[in-house]
Amino acid sequence: MSAQxxxxxxxxxxxxRVEVDPxxxxxxxxxxxxxxxxxxxxxxxxxxxxxxxxxxxxKTSASSWEFRNAYNMVLHKYGExxxxxxxxxxxxxxKEIAKSIEAAQxxxxxxxxxxxWGDHNKALQMIRDILMYMDRTFVPSNRxxxxxxxxxxxxxxxxxxxxKIQTRxxxxxxxxxxxxxxxxxxxxxxxxxxxxxxxxxxxxVYQEDFERPFLEVSASFxxxxxxxxxxxxxxxxxxxxxxxxxxxxxxxxxxYLDAKSEAKITSVVEKEMIANHMQRLVHMENxxxxxxxxxxxxxxxxxxxxxxxxxxxxxxxxxxxxxxxxRETGKQLVSDPERLRDPVDFVQRLLDMKDKHDKIxxxxxxxxxxxxxxxxxxxEYFINLNNRSPExxxxxxxxxxxxGLKGVTEEDVEVVLDKVMxxxxxxxxxxxxxxxxxxHLAKRLLSGKTVSxxxxxxxxxxxxxxxxxQFTSKLEGMFxxxxxxxxxxxxxYASQYSETGDGPTLAVQVLTTGSWPTQPxxxxxxxxEILGVCEKFxxxxxxxxxxxxxxxQTNMGTADIKATFGKGQKxxxxxxxxxxxxxxxxxxxxxxxxxxxxxxxEIPAADLKRCLQSLACVKGKNVLRKExxxxxxxxxxxxxxxxxxxxxxxxxxxxTVVAQKESExxxxxxxxxxxxxxxxxxxxxxxxxxKSRRVLDHNSIVTEVTTQLQSRFLPNPVxxxxxxxxxxxxxxxxxxxxxxxxxxxxx
Amino acid sequence: xxxxxxxxxxxxxxxxxxxxxxxxxxxxxxxxxDWHLEGAFDxxxxxxxxxxxxxxxxxxxxxxxxxxxxxxxxxxDGVSLxxxxxxxxxxxxxxxxxxxxxxxxxxxxxSRQEFISGLQSLGVDSIEKFREKLPSxxxxxxxxxxxxxxxxxxxxxxxxxxxxxxxxxTAIGMWQLLFAEKHWPLxxxxxxxxxxxxxxxxxxxxxSQLLEFVKTIDPQLSNYDAQGAWPYLIDEFVEYLFxxxxxxxxx
Lengths: 747, 251
Known about the structure:
By secondary structure, chain A is mainly alpha-helical. Chain A folds into five domains: 23-46 and 61-158, Cullin Repeats (5 helical Cullin repeat like, Up-down Bundle), CATH 1.20.1310.10; 163-304, Up-down Bundle (5 helical Cullin repeat like), CATH 1.20.1310; 317-481, Up-down Bundle (5 helical Cullin repeat like); 519-658, 2-Layer Sandwich (Ribosomal Protein S5, domain 2); 664-745, Winged helix-like DNA-binding domain superfamily/Winged helix DNA-binding domain (Arc Repressor Mutant, subunit A). Mean pLDDT of chain A is 87; it is low at 1-5 and 10-15. By secondary structure, chain B is mainly alpha-helical. Chain B contains 13 helices and two strands. The N and C termini of chain B lie far apart (64 Å). Classes of the chains: A mainly alpha, B mainly alpha. Chain A binds chain B through residues 697-699, 718, 721-722, 725, 728-729, 735, 740-741, and chain B through 164-165, 203-206, 209, 212, 227-229, 231-232, 235.
C-alpha cells in the first residue's frame, strides 16, 4: 500500500447511535486485530488503502471516511480492551521480528535490522491512522502512551534490548567504526539509519546503547594510537596525524552520528592525542616547538596553535616555552662579546629577531595578543640585561641617519624608525638613551653628516610622542641653533664685504650651552692664520648679542686644508681642528718632536696622542711620518711632514669626529653623569609625593617613585633610600615619632 | 650623720645605696616616713626630684672657679679642673649625663647659663654635693627613656658647631662609651665597618636610628627586615656582617 494514497481523516461526529454489546465488541476487536496482523504481514502490499480497510470504513460524506469500529469501541467504553489488545498484538509481532533479526548472518544483521525497522515504522503509521480516535481521546484521558510512542517503546524493549540483539548491535557498530578508522570503507548510509533509529527511540537509548561505549572505545583506541605515533613520529608529523584524526571524527559525526556527539568525540581525541602528550610534543628534540620557531615552520606552528588551543593549558604551554626560548636566545645575543663589537649589527640582530617573531605570531599564532605580550615582555627582559643597549640603539639610529637611509623612500624611512622606536620602548633606562642620542646628534649636526633632515625630525617627533615634550626640547634646541648659526654666518660675511682677502673661510656654529651635550673644552692654540678671522667673528657676534659669552669648542671643529706634497700633488685634507693646529705647525718646520707640538698647541695629552696617531699611523692617511714607526705615541717621538704621501683621492678625510662606541672610561663617565642626573629627579618625585600625601610609609614611597619615573628609568631602591635620608637631613622630611617606618612631610 | 643613732645610720646607708641618692635626700625621705625604710622608698619614688635649695652665691663662686680667663665660658681647662675636683675621669660617661642636665650645646664647653641653671636643676651648689650626686646621675643611664634622651642629646653635643653631621671618629668614641653602658655585642663590628666602608660623617637620622636598631633587632639579626626602612648605612652593615661570615644568614 502506498502512502501517497493516504487521505486526511477527519473524525466527524457519528450521527447514528449504535448499540454495542460485549459480543459485538469482541467481534470488532477481532477485526481490528486482523487488520494489524495484515499490516505486519505485508498482505496489504498491492492493495489500495480502501481495499484493505473497506470493511472498517464508513463513508459519512462525499469526501470523508471513518474507522467505524475503532470509533465504536472507544465510544462505548471498550477503549481499554482495544488498547491492551494493541499492545499484545504488537508485542507478539515484534518478538517474531526479533527472531528473524537474530537469525541474520554476519554482515546481514545490520541490514535486516534496518529493513525491519523501516517496516515497523510504516506499520506503526498505519496502525496509528486506524486508531486515531483512540489516540486522541482515550489515550490522553486515561494517561496512556500514545500509539506512535508506544510502538517505539515496544520496538526498543523487544528488539533493541533483547539480550541477543543488544550486545551484537553495539559490537557490530563499534567494529564497523573501528574498521573505518583503520582504513576500510563501510556502509555509511546504513550506519546513519541505525544511529538515527537509536535517536528516534530516545536520546538516552542513543547515549546508553551506543554513544557512551563508543566514546570509551574511542578513548582507548586513540590512547594506543597516540602512544604509537609519539614513539615514531617527529612533532610536525604527529600533529598532522592528530589533525587528520580530528577531522575524520568530525566528518564521521556529520555523516552518520548524532550532531551532539561531535563535541564529545572531539574532546576525546583532543585529550588522548593532544592534552596527554603536550609536554613531550613541545619539548621534542630536533622537532619540537623551539625548532619550529628557529626554522620558521609556519605551517607546523599554525597547526600546533590550532590543535593546542582546543585543550586546557594548551596555549599557555606553547606561550611559556616560546617565552623561555626568547629569553634565552635574547640573553645570549646581548651577552655575546662577539656581537657587542659592532653596535649597529647588534641592534640589527635585535630588530631581525623581533621581525621574525612578529611574523610567526601573525602568520601562525593568529595574531594572538597574549603571545604579543609574551614577546614584548621577553624583549623587555633581555634588552635590559645589557646596560649598553641604550647606547647601541642610539648608535644604530646614528648610523641610519648618517648613511644607512641614503636613497630610501620616505615610507621606508618611517618603517625603519618605527621599528627602532619599538626597541626603544623596551628600554628601562631611557634617560641613558637620551644622553647618548644627544651626543650622537650633536656630532651629526656639527659634521653636517646627516642623510635627511626630514628623517631627523621624524625621529624627534616619535621620541616626543613617546616621552613627552621635555625629552626632546633640548634636541629641538640643537636644530634651532644650527639654523640660527646659518643666518648668523650670512650676516657675518655680509658685514665683511670690504675685507675679502685670501684668508680662511670660517663657518661657525653657535651652540646654546644648555641644549648641547656638555663637554669641557680644553683650550688650544689656534694658528695665527685662523685667529684673525675668529676674533672678527667674535666681535661681530658680541656686537649683535650683548651679554653673552662665547667659548671656542676646539675639540669639536673641523677644517679643510689644501696641502701640497713632495712631487707637487695637491690634496684637500678634511681634518679636525686639533689636527689642523698640528699640521699648520709644519708650515714652518719640517721636523717637530712630540714635546714641541704639545707646547705649541697646548692640546691635552690624551687628545693630542689620538690626533697624532690618526695623522701618522693610519695607512692611506699618513700625512705625517713618525720616528720610530711604532703604533703608539711616545713622549720622545719625532714627526716629519710626509713628502711621500700619496692617495688616489684628491679629497682625503682624516677627521675623527664620527660617533663611535665609547671606550670603557668614557662609558664609565657617562654612566656616572646619568646617575648624578637621576638623583634630583628622584628627590623631586619624593617631594612631590610627600607634599600631596603628607604621611607615607617607606615601601609605599619606593613604589610610587618607581611608578612616577618608570617612563625614564628604573630607580634603584637603595638610591631612593639615600635620597630620603638626604631629604631628612635637609629637613624636608622627618620620621614619625611613633612608627619609624613612616615619614612626614615638613612644610 | 653623727647625731643619728646606729640603726638610723644604717638605714640612711641602705637608702643611699639602693636609691643612689645623697645623704640629704635619704634623711629627708626617712624622716618623712618616720624611719621606716619601706615608707621612705615610697616617699622617695612618689616625689618628683627633690629640689634642694641652692645658694646662688655659691653657684657664682663655682662658676668663676672654672671659667676661662678670656671668655665668659668654661672651656677645656675649666672642665678638666672640674673633673679633677669631682674626682672623675673627663672621659667618664657621667660627664655626658651632667652635660645633658645642663643642656650643654657643645662638649668640653659650658656657658654661664648652662652651668648655673644646670647645677640648680641638679640641686647642688657645692663640689661635695655635686660629687654626692654623681652616683644617681650614673643610674639615670639605666632608665630606658632617659638613656634614649641622653643618647640622642649626645649627637648634637658631640658634633662641631655649625656642622650637620658628626665626625666619624667622635661618633665611634661616643658609641664605644654609650654601648659600654647599654651593652651591644655588635658595637665593635659596627665601628670597624664604618672605618673600613664608610669613612664619612654620621647623619643625625643614622645616629638615632642606630639606637632603635640596637633595641629592637637581636644580635643574631634573626628579626632584621630588609624592608624595615632602616637607614641605608645600617642595611650595608647587615650585608657586611653576612658577607664576612660574622653572622650566619638564615634562609
